[in-house]
Write a structure and sequence with these properties.
Strand order of the largest sheet: 1-2-3-4-5-6-7-8
Order of helices and strands: HEHEHHEHEHEHEHEHEHHHH
Structural class: alpha/beta
Distance between the termini: 8 Å
Strand content: 5-15%
Helix content: 40-55%
């Protein structure tokens, strides 16, 4: 089976499928020990690769190259890629989708924001006219073979949210995402208006949406949950703490064997798995 169909089957199964936001190869290596699905977060990638906020700096060749490295090291993980607005131009969006599908991405998220774009949980978002976005979405859908396509709206006005969610559900997109949903009640309203179309919910620490467990999301009829930044924010805190402790200790490193700290042995063992997985790519596709 193809990667798109494998993810599509999991989405259609009971329960809420979690996809963990990763931002580089190392965070993916750790996440792979706990979850079988990745979300290539635009927020995390912009922060890690460019050191910039998620406001439209990502160049599509950089994102495609990152997805290619991920697929080489992780042949069995679901790989959902955030492609923002398709990098503005519809033809570019189609080209990127085709490139990502050829290298083995499981799916993409295409949003209806217009430039200058913002993180989905930030203020000041603006959206394209619905008809313009639908034209882009239809071109992307026609350009994929069986990759999963998530249609995302960043609408903020109540009537527009429901209008756009319903319109996205009536397309051939596989999943609908309304980003920045502010309450459980709004999840229920969106669930009703999109009918049987699978629903995706985006959770980000400090964002606008409520913090909900997978069990709670399943009860609400959510089919997929993406966790955009747990790895990035955990790394932020851990690195800051480690360097503060190093400074306090006058530059003396902690003894890894005695304190449970990660040392060169543990890190190397983790990364060696990314070599061995290369040999299993064919088996992964037929499993």
């Amino acid at each position: 089976m193809t990667y798109g169909n494998v993810l599509r089957q999991e989405i259609s199964a009971s329960g809420t499928t979690p996809l963990i936001g990763i931002y580089d190869m190392y965070s993916a290596s750790i996440a792979a020990q706990h979850y079988n699905g990745f979300f290539v977060s635009g927020f995390g990638f912009a922060a890690s690769y460019y050191g910039l906020p998620d406001i439209g700096f990502i160049a599509w060749p950089d994102m495609v190259a990152f997805a290619e490295r991920l697929r080489g090291a992780f042949p069995r993980q679901h790989l959902l890629v955030d492609i923002d607005d398709g990098y503005v131009d519809p033809e570019v969006a189609c080209h990127v989708v085709q490139r990502l599908e050829r290298i083995g991405a499981s799916g993409v998220i295409l949003e209806d924001q217009k430039r200058p774009r913002r993180c989905g949980h930030a203020d000041g978002k603006q959206v394209l006219p619905l008809e313009e976005y639908l034209e882009k979405l239809e071109l992307v859908l026609a350009s994929r073979t069986d990759m999963v396509v998530v249609a995302r709206t960043d609408a903020t006005e109540e009537a527009d949210i429901l209008r756009r969610a319903q319109a996205l559900a009536e397309t051939d997109a596989d999943v609908v995402l309304v980003d920045g949903v502010r309450s459980v009640d709004w999840i229920k309203r969106i669930r009703r208006v999109i009918g049987d179309k699978p629903l995706l919910f985006n959770q980000i620490a400090g964002g606008k949406s409520p913090r909900l467990s997978l069990s709670e999301l399943t009860e609400l009829g959510v089919d997929v949950a993406i966790y955009s930044t747990p790895c990035l924010f955990a790394a932020h805190r851990a690195v800051d703490t480690a360097l503060a402790e190093l400074q306090f200790a006058d530059g003396r490193l902690p003894a890894a064997d005695d304190t449970g700290e990660i040392g060169v042995r543990e890190s190397t063992k983790l990364l060696e798995k990314n070599i061995s997985r290369h040999h299993d790519t064919r088996e992964a596709l037929s499993a």
